[in-house]
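Hi V.,

You were right to ask for the full record rather than a summary. Here it is.
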Amino acid sequence: MLRTPGDLLYLLTGLPVAIASAVVGWVLSSLVTGLASTVVLLPVALLVLLATLACARGFAHLERFRLSWTGERIPAPAPAGSPLTPPAPNRTGRWWRWWDWLRDGQLWLDLLHGAIAIALATLTWSITVAWLVTGLAGVSYWAWGERAEAAAGPGSITIAGITGLPVAWQVVVGVVLLVTLVPVARGLAFAHAAFARGTIGNSSVRALAQRVEVLTASRAAASDAEAAALRSLERDLHDGPQQRLVRLEMDLAAAQRRLAAGDADAAATTVGEARLQAQEALAELRALSRGIAPPVLVDRGLVAAVESLASRSAVPTVVHADLGPSLEGRRLPSAVERTAYFVVAEALTNAAKHSGARAVVVDLRGEPQPEATWLVVRVEDDGVGGADPESATGTGLRGLGARAESVDGALTVSSPAGGPTVVEARLPLR
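Predicted structure:
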């Protein structure tokens, strides 16, 4: 009963919207067909086709919005190029985006829905209007029917189902129709919702296919991130501790030779240098171990680890943490904690090295959503901006993007010239 006003509003506005959708789809499709018959006009036909699909997508969004009036929630499929359907590697640029649009089967289903929904809309609109008008006329004909016929002439007004019936029966028929309008409107709205789920909704098959694409992309990103991390660790070990250990071995060998020659003072000096090399190698190994698994992150959690990063940052950094009641005092998944930690660490390093920033703000917050709670990590500095993950110097940011994708998250970077630079990672907590 509570849904009846929304059902009626949806059904009564359905035919005009369906007519507009069908006319736009048919006209533009016919125009595409006509232009495509001429080779010279093929680029124009492609543009018109893209415009047709864009209109179909708009009418599909409108249909899902209108169905929400009835209480029916139709999940929208993830479009091509969205964070849930990552593009194939090495495929960037306008032409590839257009190609992704053309190969997005959901857009063609949107177009199909707009072209044939008019048949269902015509049927349901006619039934709704007939049921509603006849019911209202039945309960009120006794008040205005005679005067209307007197003014227009006998027999000029005919209402199917009630004309010719006694007044009492007219009222009974009207009441019955108005009472049964509730389940009738519900059934008609449900028919539209079922049709929408099969065409412009996110069916279980499409949802599964999209999930497979997401998992494939995230696993590839995880593999790439792991390979990059291993290469970086190998390089750091080679350039740092390994060289110092080689020097340590050489110093100890020299000290041994000098002791054998009886030069104790020279041997002591060499042993002192070897000790210094051992201390520096130990310090570098500790630094590398913090990069692999920071002890404070393992022992005390993300917030404490980020506060420790902020305290060591070369740029004054303020940390705001509001994970919400559902996450307060709980440990987050280890993969998510490590990813969030490295996002903050890389952003603070970039701010200190490249941005010329005087202040940095780090926000950690939990964002509940129907499907999952998201951890949002936001790092903003007041530097000069200009950070670009796609540039030759943006390898660190690209690596962070791969880390975020490896846990089914996403990283966005906003860094206009003149600043500020905002690095935001959204990581799902499942």
